[in-house]
Design a protein that fits this description.
By secondary structure, the chain is α/β, with parallel strands linked by helices. It contains five helices and five strands; from the N terminus they run βαβαααβαββ. Helices cover 33% and strands 14% of the residues.
Length: 171
């Protein structure tokens, strides 16, 4: 078991396929069990960025659902991210009409706008174009020294362009 205490700022969780990166993120947010584990921050969020079983939902539906679950929802940040990620033309479309990359951008914009104390991102650059990767990287870089919030980013390797506070290696 990984020490659940996380520093504020950026934390990388790295490892090969099947080493438990996604499981750890879900565990950190209490999503592995029906009842949250004691000692876990209940203001923590993880979201499957592929948005499974939501094909008939629109991006706005996804964001509205997240807004109702997250008391510190930042509508201005969502609008800024949606603009930077080029999501405006897609807001009224159903997710089934969107590419994998655009669908993941919808999820990422919503996830970052939740302003949860702990935000878990599972392979945030997968299926994104370089411009969108830059937007997400710049956001994370800007948050690297946040005094009270943590972003846990799981991927095969830690992004060398980001100043990590901790790197957790699995496997």
């Amino acid at each position: 078991m990984i020490d659940p205490s996380l520093p504020a700022g950026l934390v990388a969780v790295v490892g090969d396929e099947g080493t438990g990166k996604t499981r750890l993120l879900r565990e950190l947010t209490g999503q592995l069990h029906e009842t949250p584990s004691p000692g876990l921050d209940h203001d923590a969020i993880w979201l499957d960025l592929s948005l499974p079983k939501l094909d008939d939902s629109t991006p706005q539906d996804v964001w509205d659902t997240l807004r109702t679950r997250c008391p510190r929802w930042n509508a201005a940040l969502l609008q800024e991210l949606a603009l930077a990620l080029g999501l405006q033309p897609h807001v009224g479309k159903t997710l089934s009409m969107l590419s994998t990359g655009t669908r993941r951008k919808v999820a990422l914009a919503g996830l970052l706008a939740t302003e949860a104390t702990v935000t878990c991102l599972d392979q945030p650059y997968a299926a994104l174009d370089m411009a969108s990767i830059r937007v997400i990287r710049e956001f994370l870089h800007a948050m690297a020294n946040h005094p009270t919030r943590t972003w846990v980013v799981a991927d095969y390797e830690a992004d060398l362009n980001l100043p990590w506070r901790r790197i957790i290696r699995l496997g």
